[in-house]
Amino acid sequence: MKERLETFGTYQDAMLEGNDFMSHSLLSSSINIGLLTPMEVVRKAEEAYHNGEVPINSAEGFIRQLIGWREYMRGIYLKKMPDYRDTNTFDHQRDLPVFFWDAKTYMNCMHEAIRPVVEHGYNHHIQRLMVIGNYATLFGLSPQQTSDWFNEMYIDAYDWVVLPNVLGMALYADGGSAIY
Ligand SMILES: Cc1cc2nc3c(=O)[nH]c(=O)nc-3n(C[C@H](O)[C@H](O)[C@H](O)COP(=O)(O)OP(=O)(O)OC[C@H]3O[C@@H](n4cnc5c(N)ncnc54)[C@H](O)[C@@H]3O)c2cc1C
User: Fold this and answer.
1) pLDDT tens digits for 67-98?
2) How many domains does the chain contain in total?
3) Mean model confidence pLDDT for the chain
4) 35 occurs within a structural domain
5) I want to staple 141 with a disulfide (CB 3.0 to 4.6 A). Which of 81, 129, 136, 159 is the partner?
6) To test the ligand 1 pocket, which listed residue (5, 28, 174) has its Cβ within 8 A of the most ligand atoms?
7) In which band, very low, low, confident or very high, does the pLDDT at 178 lie, cut at 50, 70 and 90?
8) pLDDT digits (tens, 9 = 90+) for 146-160
Protein backbone atom coordinates (compact mmCIF):
# COMPACT_ATOMS: atom_id res chain seq x y z
CA MET A 1 0.00 0.00 0.00
CA LYS A 2 2.82 2.38 0.86
CA GLU A 3 5.35 1.65 -1.85
CA ARG A 4 3.58 0.43 -4.97
CA LEU A 5 -0.14 1.13 -4.99
CA GLU A 6 0.18 4.81 -5.88
CA THR A 7 1.55 3.99 -9.34
CA PHE A 8 -0.44 0.78 -9.94
CA GLY A 9 -3.14 2.46 -12.03
CA THR A 10 -0.70 4.01 -14.46
CA TYR A 11 1.75 1.13 -14.82
CA GLN A 12 -0.24 -2.08 -14.15
CA ASP A 13 -0.21 -3.04 -17.84
CA ALA A 14 3.42 -2.06 -18.55
CA MET A 15 6.64 -4.07 -18.87
CA LEU A 16 10.15 -2.70 -18.33
CA GLU A 17 13.27 -4.75 -19.01
CA GLY A 18 15.06 -5.74 -15.78
CA ASN A 19 12.22 -4.52 -13.53
CA ASP A 20 10.48 -7.69 -12.39
CA PHE A 21 7.85 -6.32 -10.03
CA MET A 22 7.05 -2.75 -11.12
CA SER A 23 3.89 -1.56 -9.32
CA HIS A 24 2.52 -5.03 -8.56
CA SER A 25 1.76 -6.08 -4.99
CA LEU A 26 3.22 -9.65 -4.93
CA LEU A 27 0.31 -10.56 -2.65
CA SER A 28 -1.22 -13.45 -4.63
CA SER A 29 0.70 -16.20 -2.83
CA SER A 30 -0.22 -14.82 0.62
CA ILE A 31 -3.87 -14.44 -0.36
CA ASN A 32 -4.12 -17.85 -2.01
CA ILE A 33 -2.58 -19.62 0.96
CA GLY A 34 -4.98 -17.84 3.34
CA LEU A 35 -2.52 -15.59 5.20
CA LEU A 36 -4.52 -12.59 3.99
CA THR A 37 -8.17 -12.51 2.98
CA PRO A 38 -9.08 -10.67 -0.24
CA MET A 39 -11.38 -8.36 1.77
CA GLU A 40 -8.59 -7.30 4.16
CA VAL A 41 -6.50 -6.26 1.18
CA VAL A 42 -9.42 -4.51 -0.52
CA ARG A 43 -10.21 -2.53 2.66
CA LYS A 44 -6.58 -1.39 2.98
CA ALA A 45 -6.56 -0.13 -0.61
CA GLU A 46 -9.87 1.65 -0.01
CA GLU A 47 -8.44 3.26 3.14
CA ALA A 48 -5.34 4.45 1.26
CA TYR A 49 -7.62 6.11 -1.31
CA HIS A 50 -9.82 7.81 1.31
CA ASN A 51 -6.69 9.06 3.13
CA GLY A 52 -5.53 10.70 -0.11
CA GLU A 53 -2.46 8.44 -0.40
CA VAL A 54 -3.28 6.93 -3.80
CA PRO A 55 -5.26 8.14 -6.84
CA ILE A 56 -8.58 6.62 -7.83
CA ASN A 57 -7.25 4.79 -10.91
CA SER A 58 -4.81 2.89 -8.69
CA ALA A 59 -7.33 2.04 -5.96
CA GLU A 60 -10.05 1.09 -8.44
CA GLY A 61 -7.70 -0.88 -10.71
CA PHE A 62 -6.28 -2.86 -7.79
CA ILE A 63 -9.60 -3.57 -6.07
CA ARG A 64 -11.07 -4.69 -9.40
CA GLN A 65 -8.36 -7.34 -9.76
CA LEU A 66 -9.43 -8.90 -6.48
CA ILE A 67 -13.21 -8.65 -6.37
CA GLY A 68 -13.48 -8.79 -10.16
CA TRP A 69 -10.99 -11.14 -11.75
CA ARG A 70 -9.99 -13.29 -8.80
CA GLU A 71 -13.55 -14.05 -7.71
CA TYR A 72 -14.69 -14.49 -11.31
CA MET A 73 -11.95 -17.03 -12.04
CA ARG A 74 -12.93 -18.98 -8.95
CA GLY A 75 -16.57 -18.99 -10.13
CA ILE A 76 -15.62 -20.27 -13.59
CA TYR A 77 -13.64 -23.11 -12.04
CA LEU A 78 -16.53 -24.14 -9.77
CA LYS A 79 -19.01 -23.97 -12.65
CA LYS A 80 -17.00 -25.71 -15.39
CA MET A 81 -14.92 -28.41 -13.76
CA PRO A 82 -14.15 -31.29 -14.16
CA ASP A 83 -14.46 -31.26 -18.00
CA TYR A 84 -12.83 -27.82 -18.30
CA ARG A 85 -9.28 -29.07 -17.73
CA ASP A 86 -9.33 -31.03 -21.05
CA THR A 87 -10.69 -28.23 -23.22
CA ASN A 88 -8.70 -27.66 -26.46
CA THR A 89 -10.77 -25.71 -29.00
CA PHE A 90 -7.96 -25.25 -31.53
CA ASP A 91 -6.62 -28.79 -31.06
CA HIS A 92 -3.15 -27.40 -30.32
CA GLN A 93 -0.73 -30.26 -29.61
CA ARG A 94 2.83 -28.91 -29.64
CA ASP A 95 5.22 -29.58 -26.75
CA LEU A 96 6.64 -26.69 -24.75
CA PRO A 97 10.10 -25.57 -25.92
CA VAL A 98 12.98 -26.22 -23.52
CA PHE A 99 13.49 -22.48 -22.89
CA PHE A 100 10.31 -22.48 -20.77
CA TRP A 101 12.49 -24.01 -18.01
CA ASP A 102 15.65 -21.91 -18.33
CA ALA A 103 14.55 -18.72 -20.16
CA LYS A 104 17.41 -19.14 -22.62
CA THR A 105 16.03 -17.74 -25.86
CA TYR A 106 16.96 -14.92 -28.22
CA MET A 107 13.33 -13.74 -28.21
CA ASN A 108 13.82 -11.00 -25.68
CA CYS A 109 10.15 -10.60 -24.72
CA MET A 110 9.94 -14.31 -23.92
CA HIS A 111 13.28 -14.21 -22.12
CA GLU A 112 12.16 -11.25 -19.99
CA ALA A 113 8.79 -12.88 -19.26
CA ILE A 114 10.17 -16.30 -18.27
CA ARG A 115 13.40 -15.23 -16.49
CA PRO A 116 11.51 -13.91 -13.40
CA VAL A 117 9.57 -17.18 -13.20
CA VAL A 118 12.80 -19.19 -13.14
CA GLU A 119 14.36 -16.78 -10.62
CA HIS A 120 11.42 -16.02 -8.30
CA GLY A 121 8.51 -18.34 -9.17
CA TYR A 122 6.70 -15.15 -10.17
CA ASN A 123 6.03 -12.77 -12.99
CA HIS A 124 3.22 -10.28 -13.35
CA HIS A 125 -0.08 -10.35 -15.16
CA ILE A 126 1.03 -8.81 -18.45
CA GLN A 127 3.92 -11.22 -18.86
CA ARG A 128 1.63 -14.17 -18.10
CA LEU A 129 -1.21 -13.04 -20.35
CA MET A 130 0.15 -10.91 -23.15
CA VAL A 131 3.56 -12.45 -23.72
CA ILE A 132 3.53 -16.12 -22.67
CA GLY A 133 -0.18 -16.61 -23.41
CA ASN A 134 0.11 -15.02 -26.83
CA TYR A 135 3.22 -17.03 -27.69
CA ALA A 136 1.55 -20.29 -26.61
CA THR A 137 -1.50 -19.59 -28.77
CA LEU A 138 0.45 -18.53 -31.88
CA PHE A 139 2.90 -21.43 -31.54
CA GLY A 140 0.11 -23.97 -31.03
CA LEU A 141 1.28 -25.25 -27.64
CA SER A 142 -0.81 -27.91 -25.95
CA PRO A 143 -3.11 -26.06 -23.49
CA GLN A 144 -2.79 -28.93 -20.99
CA GLN A 145 1.02 -28.85 -21.08
CA THR A 146 0.87 -25.07 -20.75
CA SER A 147 -1.39 -25.19 -17.70
CA ASP A 148 0.82 -27.91 -16.17
CA TRP A 149 3.81 -25.60 -16.66
CA PHE A 150 1.99 -22.72 -14.91
CA ASN A 151 1.04 -25.05 -12.06
CA GLU A 152 4.61 -26.27 -11.63
CA MET A 153 6.50 -22.99 -11.95
CA TYR A 154 4.54 -20.36 -9.99
CA ILE A 155 4.49 -19.74 -6.26
CA ASP A 156 0.82 -18.68 -6.39
CA ALA A 157 -0.43 -21.61 -8.54
CA TYR A 158 -3.49 -23.72 -7.76
CA ASP A 159 -5.77 -25.49 -10.22
CA TRP A 160 -8.75 -23.21 -9.48
CA VAL A 161 -6.87 -20.10 -10.56
CA VAL A 162 -4.49 -21.59 -13.16
CA LEU A 163 -7.06 -23.35 -15.34
CA PRO A 164 -9.49 -20.45 -15.99
CA ASN A 165 -6.61 -18.00 -16.46
CA VAL A 166 -4.57 -20.24 -18.77
CA LEU A 167 -7.23 -22.17 -20.69
CA GLY A 168 -9.76 -19.33 -20.75
CA MET A 169 -8.16 -15.94 -20.51
CA ALA A 170 -4.73 -16.54 -22.04
CA LEU A 171 -5.12 -19.32 -24.66
CA TYR A 172 -8.80 -19.15 -25.64
CA ALA A 173 -8.63 -22.94 -25.47
CA ASP A 174 -12.16 -23.02 -24.04
CA GLY A 175 -13.58 -21.26 -27.11
CA GLY A 176 -14.37 -18.19 -25.00
CA SER A 177 -16.77 -19.92 -22.63
CA ALA A 178 -15.11 -18.34 -19.58
CA ILE A 179 -15.61 -14.86 -20.98
CA TYR A 180 -18.97 -14.97 -22.80
C1 LIG B 1 -1.95 -17.18 -17.83
C2 LIG B 1 -2.19 -16.66 -16.43
C3 LIG B 1 -1.91 -17.47 -15.34
C4 LIG B 1 -2.15 -17.01 -14.04
N5 LIG B 1 -1.91 -17.83 -12.99
C6 LIG B 1 -2.20 -17.42 -11.73
C7 LIG B 1 -1.96 -18.26 -10.60
O8 LIG B 1 -1.48 -19.39 -10.71
N9 LIG B 1 -2.27 -17.79 -9.36
C10 LIG B 1 -2.82 -16.55 -9.19
O11 LIG B 1 -3.09 -16.18 -8.04
N12 LIG B 1 -3.04 -15.72 -10.23
C13 LIG B 1 -2.73 -16.11 -11.48
N14 LIG B 1 -2.95 -15.26 -12.53
C15 LIG B 1 -3.54 -13.93 -12.30
C16 LIG B 1 -2.50 -12.80 -12.08
O17 LIG B 1 -1.57 -12.78 -13.14
C18 LIG B 1 -1.77 -12.97 -10.74
O19 LIG B 1 -2.74 -13.08 -9.70
C20 LIG B 1 -0.88 -11.78 -10.43
O21 LIG B 1 0.06 -11.59 -11.47
C22 LIG B 1 -0.19 -12.01 -9.10
O23 LIG B 1 0.75 -11.00 -8.85
P24 LIG B 1 0.46 -9.82 -7.82
O25 LIG B 1 0.03 -10.36 -6.51
O26 LIG B 1 1.70 -8.96 -7.85
O27 LIG B 1 -0.79 -9.11 -8.51
P28 LIG B 1 -1.32 -7.58 -8.60
O29 LIG B 1 -1.08 -7.11 -9.97
O30 LIG B 1 -0.76 -6.76 -7.49
O31 LIG B 1 -2.88 -7.79 -8.41
C32 LIG B 1 -3.52 -7.83 -7.13
C33 LIG B 1 -4.22 -9.15 -6.88
O34 LIG B 1 -5.32 -9.31 -7.77
C35 LIG B 1 -5.56 -10.72 -7.94
N36 LIG B 1 -5.67 -11.00 -9.39
C37 LIG B 1 -5.38 -10.17 -10.40
N38 LIG B 1 -5.70 -10.71 -11.59
C39 LIG B 1 -6.17 -11.96 -11.32
C40 LIG B 1 -6.66 -13.02 -12.14
N41 LIG B 1 -6.73 -12.94 -13.47
N42 LIG B 1 -7.01 -14.17 -11.51
C43 LIG B 1 -6.94 -14.28 -10.16
N44 LIG B 1 -6.51 -13.30 -9.35
C45 LIG B 1 -6.14 -12.15 -9.92
C46 LIG B 1 -4.43 -11.47 -7.27
O47 LIG B 1 -4.89 -11.96 -6.02
C48 LIG B 1 -3.37 -10.39 -7.05
O49 LIG B 1 -2.56 -10.61 -5.92
C50 LIG B 1 -2.70 -15.71 -13.84
C51 LIG B 1 -2.96 -14.90 -14.95
C52 LIG B 1 -2.73 -15.37 -16.24
C53 LIG B 1 -3.06 -14.50 -17.40
Assistant:
1) 999 999 999 999 999 999 999 999 999 999 99
2) 2
3) 96
4) yes
5) 136
6) 28
7) confident
8) 999 999 999 999 999
CA distance linking residue 92 with residue 136, whole number of Å: 9
Decide: 69 in ligand 1 pocket, CB within 6 A. Answer: yes
Centre of ligand 1 from the C-alpha of residue 38, in Å: 12
Task: Report how far ligand 1's centroid is from the alpha carbon of 156 (Å).
Answer: 8
CATH number, domain with residue 18: 1.25.40.80
Burial class (CB in 10 A: 0-12, 13-18, 19+), 30: middle
Look at residue 180 in the predicted model and tell me its pLDDT: 64
Q: Residue 102: which CATH number?
A: 1.10.579.10
First to last CA, the chain: 33
The stretch 100-105 carries a mean pLDDT of: 98
